[in-house]
Design brief:
By secondary structure, the protein is α/β, with parallel strands linked by helices. Helix 3 (157-172) packs across helix 8 and helix 4 (207-219) crosses helix 5. The chain has helices spanning 24-32, 96-109, 157-172, 207-219, 258-265, 353-361, 367-374, 377-386, 391-402, 407-415, 418-428, 432-436, 441-463; strands at 22-23, 78-80, 85-86, 90-93, 114-124, 130-139, 143-146, 149-152, 176-184, 221-223, 231-234, 237-243, 249-256, 269-271, 277-280, 292-297, 303-307, 311-313, 318-324, 467-469, 476-478. It has two domains: 22-33 and 45-324, 3-Layer(aba) Sandwich (Cytidine Deaminase, domain 2), CATH 3.40.140.10; 345-464, no CATH class. It is globular, with a radius of gyration of 27 Å. It has a seven-stranded mixed barrel, surrounded by four helices. This is Nuclear protein localization protein 4. Pfam families: NPL4, zf-NPL4.
Length: 492
Protein backbone atom coordinates (compact mmCIF):
# COMPACT_ATOMS: atom_id res chain seq x y z
CA UNK A 1 0.00 0.00 0.00
CA UNK A 2 1.39 3.38 -1.01
CA UNK A 3 0.27 6.24 1.23
CA UNK A 4 0.53 10.00 1.19
CA UNK A 5 0.65 12.61 3.92
CA UNK A 6 -3.06 13.39 3.71
CA UNK A 7 -4.61 14.16 7.10
CA UNK A 8 -8.28 13.77 6.15
CA UNK A 9 -10.16 10.83 7.60
CA UNK A 10 -10.95 9.46 4.14
CA UNK A 11 -7.94 8.59 1.95
CA UNK A 12 -6.99 10.84 -0.93
CA UNK A 13 -6.37 9.49 -4.41
CA UNK A 14 -2.64 8.89 -3.84
CA UNK A 15 -3.54 5.95 -1.58
CA UNK A 16 -3.77 3.12 -4.06
CA UNK A 17 -3.71 -0.64 -3.84
CA UNK A 18 -0.79 -1.92 -5.92
CA UNK A 19 -1.08 -5.69 -5.68
CA UNK A 20 -4.68 -6.80 -5.11
CA UNK A 21 -5.89 -6.39 -8.70
CA UNK A 22 -4.09 -5.68 -11.93
CA UNK A 23 -5.02 -2.72 -14.09
CA UNK A 24 -7.04 -3.93 -17.08
CA UNK A 25 -4.50 -2.89 -19.74
CA UNK A 26 -1.61 -4.47 -17.81
CA UNK A 27 -3.59 -7.70 -17.32
CA UNK A 28 -4.49 -7.74 -21.00
CA UNK A 29 -0.85 -7.33 -22.08
CA UNK A 30 0.29 -10.08 -19.71
CA UNK A 31 -2.31 -12.53 -20.96
CA UNK A 32 -2.42 -11.64 -24.65
CA UNK A 33 0.86 -9.80 -25.24
CA UNK A 34 1.27 -6.38 -26.80
CA UNK A 35 -1.82 -5.67 -28.90
CA UNK A 36 -1.56 -1.90 -28.91
CA UNK A 37 -1.43 -1.82 -32.71
CA UNK A 38 -4.06 -2.77 -35.26
CA UNK A 39 -5.02 -6.45 -35.29
CA UNK A 40 -4.72 -8.34 -38.57
CA UNK A 41 -8.03 -8.86 -40.35
CA UNK A 42 -7.93 -12.64 -39.79
CA UNK A 43 -7.22 -12.37 -36.04
CA UNK A 44 -10.29 -12.05 -33.77
CA UNK A 45 -10.18 -9.61 -30.84
CA UNK A 46 -8.62 -11.37 -27.82
CA UNK A 47 -11.08 -10.34 -25.10
CA UNK A 48 -14.45 -11.98 -24.56
CA UNK A 49 -16.87 -11.92 -21.67
CA UNK A 50 -17.81 -15.31 -20.22
CA UNK A 51 -21.20 -16.64 -21.28
CA UNK A 52 -22.90 -19.32 -19.20
CA UNK A 53 -26.07 -19.56 -21.27
CA UNK A 54 -26.94 -22.34 -23.68
CA UNK A 55 -25.71 -21.33 -27.13
CA UNK A 56 -28.65 -20.71 -29.48
CA UNK A 57 -28.94 -21.95 -33.07
CA UNK A 58 -26.84 -25.05 -32.55
CA UNK A 59 -26.10 -26.81 -35.88
CA UNK A 60 -25.62 -30.27 -34.37
CA UNK A 61 -28.94 -31.62 -35.64
CA UNK A 62 -31.06 -31.58 -32.47
CA UNK A 63 -34.11 -29.62 -31.38
CA UNK A 64 -33.32 -26.19 -29.92
CA UNK A 65 -33.07 -25.75 -26.16
CA UNK A 66 -34.96 -26.56 -23.98
CA UNK A 67 -36.15 -29.51 -26.08
CA UNK A 68 -32.61 -30.58 -26.95
CA UNK A 69 -29.00 -29.93 -25.95
CA UNK A 70 -25.54 -31.26 -26.79
CA UNK A 71 -21.96 -30.85 -25.62
CA UNK A 72 -21.33 -28.09 -28.16
CA UNK A 73 -24.15 -25.79 -27.12
CA UNK A 74 -24.22 -26.43 -23.38
CA UNK A 75 -21.98 -24.21 -21.21
CA UNK A 76 -18.91 -25.74 -19.61
CA UNK A 77 -18.48 -26.19 -15.87
CA UNK A 78 -17.71 -22.97 -13.98
CA UNK A 79 -14.77 -22.64 -11.60
CA UNK A 80 -15.07 -19.47 -9.53
CA UNK A 81 -11.95 -17.59 -8.50
CA UNK A 82 -11.09 -14.04 -7.53
CA UNK A 83 -10.80 -11.86 -10.62
CA UNK A 84 -7.19 -10.76 -11.07
CA UNK A 85 -7.95 -7.43 -12.77
CA UNK A 86 -10.38 -4.58 -12.34
CA UNK A 87 -12.07 -2.26 -14.78
CA UNK A 88 -11.83 0.83 -12.53
CA UNK A 89 -8.93 1.47 -10.18
CA UNK A 90 -10.28 4.31 -8.04
CA UNK A 91 -13.51 6.15 -7.21
CA UNK A 92 -12.95 9.87 -6.68
CA UNK A 93 -15.68 11.97 -5.06
CA UNK A 94 -15.29 15.48 -6.45
CA UNK A 95 -16.41 17.09 -3.19
CA UNK A 96 -16.93 16.05 0.43
CA UNK A 97 -20.31 17.80 0.29
CA UNK A 98 -21.63 14.93 -1.86
CA UNK A 99 -21.28 12.46 1.00
CA UNK A 100 -22.33 14.96 3.66
CA UNK A 101 -25.55 15.68 1.75
CA UNK A 102 -26.31 11.96 1.48
CA UNK A 103 -25.57 11.45 5.19
CA UNK A 104 -27.80 14.37 6.18
CA UNK A 105 -30.85 12.26 5.34
CA UNK A 106 -29.72 9.44 7.64
CA UNK A 107 -28.87 11.90 10.40
CA UNK A 108 -32.32 13.50 10.29
CA UNK A 109 -34.41 10.32 9.84
CA UNK A 110 -32.20 7.43 11.00
CA UNK A 111 -33.18 5.75 7.71
CA UNK A 112 -30.82 4.42 5.05
CA UNK A 113 -30.45 6.15 1.69
CA UNK A 114 -29.65 5.08 -1.86
CA UNK A 115 -28.37 7.10 -4.79
CA UNK A 116 -26.95 6.83 -8.29
CA UNK A 117 -23.50 8.28 -8.98
CA UNK A 118 -23.07 10.58 -11.97
CA UNK A 119 -19.75 11.77 -13.32
CA UNK A 120 -17.09 10.67 -15.80
CA UNK A 121 -14.08 8.40 -16.21
CA UNK A 122 -10.60 9.92 -16.28
CA UNK A 123 -7.03 8.61 -16.32
CA UNK A 124 -5.60 7.91 -12.86
CA UNK A 125 -2.22 9.57 -13.28
CA UNK A 126 -0.85 8.26 -9.96
CA UNK A 127 -1.03 4.74 -11.39
CA UNK A 128 0.27 3.93 -14.89
CA UNK A 129 -2.64 3.15 -17.24
CA UNK A 130 -5.07 3.49 -14.32
CA UNK A 131 -8.70 4.61 -14.66
CA UNK A 132 -10.77 6.45 -12.07
CA UNK A 133 -14.49 7.13 -11.83
CA UNK A 134 -14.99 10.79 -10.88
CA UNK A 135 -18.30 11.34 -9.06
CA UNK A 136 -19.72 14.83 -9.60
CA UNK A 137 -23.30 14.32 -8.33
CA UNK A 138 -25.55 11.85 -6.51
CA UNK A 139 -29.16 11.42 -7.64
CA UNK A 140 -31.57 9.97 -5.06
CA UNK A 141 -34.47 8.15 -6.79
CA UNK A 142 -37.80 7.42 -5.16
CA UNK A 143 -37.33 4.78 -2.47
CA UNK A 144 -39.07 3.39 0.57
CA UNK A 145 -37.61 2.10 3.79
CA UNK A 146 -37.97 -1.39 5.14
CA UNK A 147 -36.85 -2.81 8.48
CA UNK A 148 -33.85 -4.46 6.83
CA UNK A 149 -32.97 -1.96 4.10
CA UNK A 150 -34.20 0.10 1.16
CA UNK A 151 -36.84 -0.77 -1.43
CA UNK A 152 -36.51 0.48 -5.02
CA UNK A 153 -39.17 0.22 -7.71
CA UNK A 154 -36.71 -1.07 -10.32
CA UNK A 155 -38.33 -1.59 -13.70
CA UNK A 156 -41.43 0.48 -12.93
CA UNK A 157 -42.46 3.22 -15.35
CA UNK A 158 -42.03 6.02 -12.80
CA UNK A 159 -38.58 4.79 -11.79
CA UNK A 160 -37.45 4.47 -15.40
CA UNK A 161 -38.70 7.99 -16.18
CA UNK A 162 -36.71 9.33 -13.23
CA UNK A 163 -33.54 7.72 -14.53
CA UNK A 164 -34.21 8.99 -18.07
CA UNK A 165 -34.43 12.56 -16.74
CA UNK A 166 -31.29 12.17 -14.63
CA UNK A 167 -29.42 10.63 -17.58
CA UNK A 168 -30.55 13.50 -19.82
CA UNK A 169 -29.26 16.06 -17.32
CA UNK A 170 -25.95 14.23 -17.03
CA UNK A 171 -25.59 13.92 -20.81
CA UNK A 172 -26.17 17.66 -21.23
CA UNK A 173 -23.25 18.23 -18.85
CA UNK A 174 -21.00 15.70 -20.56
CA UNK A 175 -21.44 13.06 -17.85
CA UNK A 176 -23.00 9.64 -17.37
CA UNK A 177 -24.07 7.24 -14.63
CA UNK A 178 -20.90 5.69 -13.19
CA UNK A 179 -22.22 3.77 -10.18
CA UNK A 180 -24.48 3.61 -7.16
CA UNK A 181 -24.11 4.27 -3.45
CA UNK A 182 -26.08 3.33 -0.34
CA UNK A 183 -25.75 3.71 3.41
CA UNK A 184 -25.70 0.96 6.03
CA UNK A 185 -25.36 2.88 9.27
CA UNK A 186 -26.44 1.97 12.78
CA UNK A 187 -25.64 4.37 15.62
CA UNK A 188 -23.99 2.82 18.69
CA UNK A 189 -25.23 5.39 21.18
CA UNK A 190 -21.80 6.95 21.52
CA UNK A 191 -21.30 10.38 19.94
CA UNK A 192 -20.29 10.14 16.26
CA UNK A 193 -19.92 6.35 16.43
CA UNK A 194 -21.56 3.69 14.23
CA UNK A 195 -21.47 -0.10 14.22
CA UNK A 196 -18.66 -1.94 12.44
CA UNK A 197 -20.82 -4.41 10.51
CA UNK A 198 -19.00 -5.13 7.28
CA UNK A 199 -15.68 -6.94 7.60
CA UNK A 200 -13.90 -10.17 6.66
CA UNK A 201 -15.71 -12.19 9.32
CA UNK A 202 -19.19 -11.09 8.21
CA UNK A 203 -19.57 -9.69 4.68
CA UNK A 204 -18.53 -6.74 2.56
CA UNK A 205 -21.59 -6.76 0.29
CA UNK A 206 -24.66 -8.91 0.88
CA UNK A 207 -25.78 -11.41 -1.73
CA UNK A 208 -28.78 -9.18 -2.52
CA UNK A 209 -26.51 -6.16 -3.04
CA UNK A 210 -24.20 -8.26 -5.22
CA UNK A 211 -27.05 -9.31 -7.46
CA UNK A 212 -28.24 -5.70 -7.81
CA UNK A 213 -24.69 -4.61 -8.65
CA UNK A 214 -24.38 -7.34 -11.29
CA UNK A 215 -27.76 -6.30 -12.74
CA UNK A 216 -26.64 -2.66 -12.99
CA UNK A 217 -23.28 -3.61 -14.49
CA UNK A 218 -25.07 -5.56 -17.20
CA UNK A 219 -27.09 -2.42 -18.00
CA UNK A 220 -23.85 -0.41 -18.30
CA UNK A 221 -21.37 -2.52 -20.31
CA UNK A 222 -17.91 -1.17 -21.05
CA UNK A 223 -17.20 -0.48 -24.76
CA UNK A 224 -13.92 -2.12 -25.75
CA UNK A 225 -12.33 -2.37 -29.18
CA UNK A 226 -10.36 -5.45 -28.09
CA UNK A 227 -13.54 -7.42 -27.28
CA UNK A 228 -15.27 -9.71 -29.75
CA UNK A 229 -18.71 -8.46 -28.87
CA UNK A 230 -17.67 -4.80 -28.69
CA UNK A 231 -17.99 -4.76 -24.89
CA UNK A 232 -15.93 -6.19 -22.05
CA UNK A 233 -16.99 -6.06 -18.42
CA UNK A 234 -18.32 -2.84 -16.91
CA UNK A 235 -16.93 0.27 -15.23
CA UNK A 236 -20.04 0.62 -13.04
CA UNK A 237 -19.03 0.85 -9.35
CA UNK A 238 -20.90 0.14 -6.12
CA UNK A 239 -20.13 2.16 -2.97
CA UNK A 240 -21.28 1.46 0.57
CA UNK A 241 -21.21 3.97 3.43
CA UNK A 242 -20.86 2.08 6.70
CA UNK A 243 -18.83 1.97 9.91
CA UNK A 244 -15.15 1.03 9.99
CA UNK A 245 -13.23 -0.83 12.69
CA UNK A 246 -12.77 2.41 14.65
CA UNK A 247 -16.50 3.12 14.64
CA UNK A 248 -16.27 6.02 12.19
CA UNK A 249 -18.26 6.44 8.99
CA UNK A 250 -16.26 5.20 6.01
CA UNK A 251 -16.79 4.35 2.35
CA UNK A 252 -15.92 1.12 0.58
CA UNK A 253 -16.08 0.70 -3.19
CA UNK A 254 -16.59 -2.51 -5.16
CA UNK A 255 -17.26 -4.01 -8.53
CA UNK A 256 -18.73 -7.38 -9.45
CA UNK A 257 -16.53 -9.63 -11.55
CA UNK A 258 -17.19 -10.47 -15.19
CA UNK A 259 -18.14 -13.98 -14.03
CA UNK A 260 -20.74 -12.51 -11.68
CA UNK A 261 -22.22 -10.53 -14.57
CA UNK A 262 -22.36 -13.68 -16.71
CA UNK A 263 -24.02 -15.67 -13.91
CA UNK A 264 -26.62 -12.94 -13.47
CA UNK A 265 -27.26 -12.82 -17.23
CA UNK A 266 -27.76 -16.60 -17.27
CA UNK A 267 -30.06 -16.46 -14.21
CA UNK A 268 -27.81 -18.81 -12.24
CA UNK A 269 -27.70 -16.97 -8.91
CA UNK A 270 -30.21 -15.81 -6.34
CA UNK A 271 -29.68 -14.08 -2.96
CA UNK A 272 -29.85 -16.19 0.18
CA UNK A 273 -31.06 -15.44 3.70
CA UNK A 274 -27.40 -15.53 4.80
CA UNK A 275 -25.89 -12.20 3.65
CA UNK A 276 -22.43 -13.65 2.95
CA UNK A 277 -23.68 -16.55 0.78
CA UNK A 278 -25.03 -16.54 -2.76
CA UNK A 279 -27.37 -19.36 -3.75
CA UNK A 280 -27.19 -21.23 -7.04
CA UNK A 281 -30.51 -21.48 -8.86
CA UNK A 282 -32.19 -24.83 -9.33
CA UNK A 283 -32.41 -26.10 -12.94
CA UNK A 284 -35.72 -25.44 -14.66
CA UNK A 285 -37.48 -26.10 -17.94
CA UNK A 286 -35.85 -23.04 -19.51
CA UNK A 287 -32.81 -22.74 -17.21
CA UNK A 288 -29.71 -24.89 -17.66
CA UNK A 289 -27.42 -24.81 -14.62
CA UNK A 290 -23.89 -26.12 -15.27
CA UNK A 291 -21.63 -27.52 -12.57
CA UNK A 292 -20.20 -24.69 -10.47
CA UNK A 293 -17.13 -25.04 -8.23
CA UNK A 294 -14.97 -22.75 -6.13
CA UNK A 295 -11.57 -23.32 -4.57
CA UNK A 296 -10.40 -22.43 -1.06
CA UNK A 297 -7.54 -23.16 1.33
CA UNK A 298 -8.41 -25.77 3.95
CA UNK A 299 -7.11 -26.21 7.50
CA UNK A 300 -4.05 -28.05 6.15
CA UNK A 301 -3.12 -25.06 3.95
CA UNK A 302 -4.02 -26.95 0.80
CA UNK A 303 -6.10 -25.61 -2.06
CA UNK A 304 -9.19 -27.73 -2.58
CA UNK A 305 -12.30 -27.42 -4.75
CA UNK A 306 -15.85 -27.44 -3.44
CA UNK A 307 -19.23 -27.62 -5.09
CA UNK A 308 -20.86 -24.17 -5.15
CA UNK A 309 -24.32 -25.70 -4.82
CA UNK A 310 -26.45 -24.85 -2.96
CA UNK A 311 -24.52 -21.69 -1.94
CA UNK A 312 -21.04 -20.18 -2.06
CA UNK A 313 -19.27 -17.15 -0.49
CA UNK A 314 -19.98 -13.85 -2.24
CA UNK A 315 -16.28 -12.89 -1.97
CA UNK A 316 -15.63 -14.91 -5.12
CA UNK A 317 -17.67 -12.35 -7.06
CA UNK A 318 -16.15 -9.17 -5.62
CA UNK A 319 -13.45 -6.84 -6.91
CA UNK A 320 -12.39 -4.15 -4.44
CA UNK A 321 -11.76 -0.59 -5.61
CA UNK A 322 -10.00 2.22 -3.76
CA UNK A 323 -11.73 5.55 -3.19
CA UNK A 324 -11.00 9.04 -1.95
CA UNK A 325 -11.17 12.77 -2.52
CA UNK A 326 -8.95 14.86 -4.84
CA UNK A 327 -6.08 16.86 -3.37
CA UNK A 328 -7.62 20.05 -4.77
CA UNK A 329 -11.44 19.82 -5.05
CA UNK A 330 -12.73 21.11 -8.37
CA UNK A 331 -16.37 20.11 -8.68
CA UNK A 332 -18.05 20.64 -12.04
CA UNK A 333 -21.20 21.88 -10.29
CA UNK A 334 -20.22 25.27 -8.87
CA UNK A 335 -23.46 26.48 -7.30
CA UNK A 336 -22.80 28.18 -3.97
CA UNK A 337 -26.41 27.63 -2.93
CA UNK A 338 -27.62 24.05 -3.06
CA UNK A 339 -31.00 23.43 -4.69
CA UNK A 340 -33.56 21.18 -2.99
CA UNK A 341 -32.67 17.48 -3.21
CA UNK A 342 -35.25 15.32 -4.99
CA UNK A 343 -37.56 12.83 -3.22
CA UNK A 344 -37.01 14.19 0.28
CA UNK A 345 -40.59 15.11 1.16
CA UNK A 346 -40.32 13.21 4.46
CA UNK A 347 -37.81 15.76 5.72
CA UNK A 348 -39.87 18.69 4.35
CA UNK A 349 -37.64 19.28 1.33
CA UNK A 350 -39.85 19.62 -1.74
CA UNK A 351 -38.96 20.73 -5.25
CA UNK A 352 -41.50 23.35 -6.41
CA UNK A 353 -41.55 26.34 -8.79
CA UNK A 354 -41.19 28.48 -5.69
CA UNK A 355 -37.93 26.73 -4.86
CA UNK A 356 -36.64 27.62 -8.33
CA UNK A 357 -37.73 31.24 -7.87
CA UNK A 358 -35.95 31.50 -4.53
CA UNK A 359 -32.85 29.80 -5.93
CA UNK A 360 -32.28 31.89 -9.06
CA UNK A 361 -33.75 35.03 -7.46
CA UNK A 362 -30.60 35.42 -5.38
CA UNK A 363 -28.69 36.18 -8.60
CA UNK A 364 -30.23 39.67 -8.46
CA UNK A 365 -29.84 40.25 -12.19
CA UNK A 366 -26.18 39.23 -12.37
CA UNK A 367 -25.40 36.94 -15.31
CA UNK A 368 -22.27 35.71 -13.57
CA UNK A 369 -24.14 34.78 -10.39
CA UNK A 370 -26.97 33.22 -12.42
CA UNK A 371 -24.49 30.99 -14.26
CA UNK A 372 -23.14 29.80 -10.90
CA UNK A 373 -26.61 29.12 -9.48
CA UNK A 374 -27.62 27.19 -12.61
CA UNK A 375 -24.62 24.91 -12.16
CA UNK A 376 -26.60 22.49 -9.98
CA UNK A 377 -27.42 18.92 -11.02
CA UNK A 378 -30.63 18.64 -8.98
CA UNK A 379 -31.95 21.93 -10.35
CA UNK A 380 -31.30 20.81 -13.92
CA UNK A 381 -33.17 17.52 -13.41
CA UNK A 382 -36.16 19.36 -11.95
CA UNK A 383 -36.20 21.81 -14.86
CA UNK A 384 -36.25 18.85 -17.26
CA UNK A 385 -39.14 17.28 -15.34
CA UNK A 386 -41.24 20.45 -15.71
CA UNK A 387 -41.05 20.22 -19.50
CA UNK A 388 -40.96 23.99 -19.95
CA UNK A 389 -37.46 24.34 -21.37
CA UNK A 390 -36.68 22.88 -24.76
CA UNK A 391 -33.67 20.79 -25.67
CA UNK A 392 -31.74 23.88 -26.77
CA UNK A 393 -32.18 25.55 -23.37
CA UNK A 394 -31.25 22.33 -21.52
CA UNK A 395 -28.12 22.05 -23.67
CA UNK A 396 -27.24 25.66 -22.83
CA UNK A 397 -27.45 24.93 -19.09
CA UNK A 398 -25.32 21.84 -19.64
CA UNK A 399 -22.71 23.98 -21.39
CA UNK A 400 -22.83 26.44 -18.49
CA UNK A 401 -21.75 23.51 -16.30
CA UNK A 402 -19.16 22.01 -18.63
CA UNK A 403 -17.70 25.28 -19.99
CA UNK A 404 -17.19 27.52 -16.93
CA UNK A 405 -14.99 29.99 -18.82
CA UNK A 406 -17.92 30.83 -21.12
CA UNK A 407 -20.66 30.42 -18.50
CA UNK A 408 -21.54 34.11 -18.18
CA UNK A 409 -22.04 34.58 -21.92
CA UNK A 410 -24.06 31.36 -22.12
CA UNK A 411 -26.27 32.56 -19.24
CA UNK A 412 -26.97 35.80 -21.11
CA UNK A 413 -27.93 33.77 -24.17
CA UNK A 414 -30.18 31.55 -22.05
CA UNK A 415 -32.24 34.37 -20.51
CA UNK A 416 -33.08 35.66 -24.00
CA UNK A 417 -34.50 32.31 -25.14
CA UNK A 418 -38.24 31.68 -25.52
CA UNK A 419 -38.16 28.71 -23.17
CA UNK A 420 -36.58 30.76 -20.39
CA UNK A 421 -39.16 33.52 -20.84
CA UNK A 422 -41.91 30.92 -20.47
CA UNK A 423 -40.22 29.61 -17.32
CA UNK A 424 -40.18 33.13 -15.85
CA UNK A 425 -43.91 33.47 -16.58
CA UNK A 426 -44.50 30.16 -14.84
CA UNK A 427 -42.57 31.28 -11.77
CA UNK A 428 -44.53 34.51 -11.61
CA UNK A 429 -47.76 32.48 -11.66
CA UNK A 430 -46.58 30.27 -8.77
CA UNK A 431 -48.90 30.40 -5.76
CA UNK A 432 -47.86 32.41 -2.70
CA UNK A 433 -48.25 29.30 -0.56
CA UNK A 434 -45.75 27.52 -2.79
CA UNK A 435 -43.23 30.33 -2.33
CA UNK A 436 -43.56 30.51 1.43
CA UNK A 437 -44.35 27.06 2.76
CA UNK A 438 -42.88 23.72 1.64
CA UNK A 439 -45.70 21.46 0.51
CA UNK A 440 -46.04 17.75 0.00
CA UNK A 441 -44.85 16.33 -3.29
CA UNK A 442 -48.31 16.06 -4.85
CA UNK A 443 -49.13 19.65 -3.88
CA UNK A 444 -45.82 20.84 -5.28
CA UNK A 445 -46.43 19.10 -8.58
CA UNK A 446 -49.98 20.48 -8.72
CA UNK A 447 -48.61 23.98 -8.24
CA UNK A 448 -46.04 23.37 -10.96
CA UNK A 449 -48.64 22.03 -13.39
CA UNK A 450 -51.01 24.91 -12.70
CA UNK A 451 -48.23 27.43 -13.21
CA UNK A 452 -47.14 25.77 -16.45
CA UNK A 453 -50.69 25.80 -17.81
CA UNK A 454 -51.13 29.42 -16.83
CA UNK A 455 -47.81 30.41 -18.40
CA UNK A 456 -48.66 28.53 -21.57
CA UNK A 457 -52.06 30.23 -21.73
CA UNK A 458 -50.42 33.63 -21.26
CA UNK A 459 -47.90 32.88 -23.99
CA UNK A 460 -50.59 31.77 -26.43
CA UNK A 461 -52.78 34.77 -25.67
CA UNK A 462 -49.85 37.09 -26.27
CA UNK A 463 -49.15 35.52 -29.65
CA UNK A 464 -52.81 35.57 -30.76
CA UNK A 465 -55.54 37.62 -29.16
CA UNK A 466 -58.40 35.83 -30.96
CA UNK A 467 -60.47 32.86 -29.79
CA UNK A 468 -61.88 29.89 -31.63
CA UNK A 469 -64.61 27.31 -31.06
CA UNK A 470 -63.74 23.65 -31.28
CA UNK A 471 -65.62 21.98 -34.14
CA UNK A 472 -65.72 18.71 -32.18
CA UNK A 473 -67.03 19.77 -28.74
CA UNK A 474 -67.83 23.50 -29.34
CA UNK A 475 -65.57 24.56 -26.42
CA UNK A 476 -64.43 28.19 -26.74
CA UNK A 477 -60.63 28.20 -26.84
CA UNK A 478 -58.43 31.27 -26.44
CA UNK A 479 -55.10 31.96 -28.17
CA UNK A 480 -53.41 30.15 -31.03
CA UNK A 481 -53.37 26.64 -29.60
CA UNK A 482 -53.33 23.90 -32.22
CA UNK A 483 -55.59 21.60 -30.17
CA UNK A 484 -58.70 21.96 -28.03
CA UNK A 485 -58.08 22.57 -24.33
CA UNK A 486 -61.17 20.49 -23.46
CA UNK A 487 -61.14 17.44 -25.77
CA UNK A 488 -57.50 17.66 -26.98
CA UNK A 489 -58.58 17.10 -30.59
CA UNK A 490 -56.83 19.11 -33.35
CA UNK A 491 -58.10 22.57 -34.21
CA UNK A 492 -58.41 21.92 -37.99
Amino acid sequence: MQKCASTVQMPCVTIVCLETHLILDIWRSRIHGDISGVLPANVPPPLEDPDYRVKPNCLNGHAPWPKGICSKCQPSAITLQRQSFRMVDNVEFASKDLIETLLSFWKSTNSQRFGFLYGHYDPLYDVPLGVKAVVEAIYEPKQSWEVDGIKLALGSEDFDQEIVRADAAAEACGMKMVGMIFTDLVATGEPNKVLYRRHANSYFLTSLECRLAAYMELKHPNPCRWARGGHFGSKFVTCCVSGNQDGYIDISAWQLSNSAMAMQAADLIIPSSVPSRMCVQEPGKARYVPDIFYSYTNEYNRTVSANAKPAFPVEYLLVNVTNGYPREPNSAFRSNRAFVIENREHVHQVQTPGAIKRHIGSAQGSSEQLSILLSDFHLLIYLISLGVLGQDEISLIGRIVSQPMEAEQLAEELVKSAGWQTLMLMLNEAADSDLNTPAESSTGMAAANAAIESAASTTHSASSGGSWACRHCTFENSGASGSCEMCALPRD
